[in-house]
Amino acid sequence: MRVGIYGGTFSPIHNGHIAAAKAFMEQMWLDILYVIPTGISPHKIMKGDATSADRLEMCRLAFEGMEGVIVSDLEIKREGRSYTVDTLRELYDPEGRLFLLMGTDMLLTLDTWREPDEIFRLCYPVYVRRESDGELDGAIVEKIASYQQTYGKVVRRIVTPTIELSSTDVRRAVAEGFPIEGAVPAAVATYIYEQGLYRNT
Question: How much of the chain, in percent, has pLDDT values that exceed 90?
Answer without folding.
Answer: 80
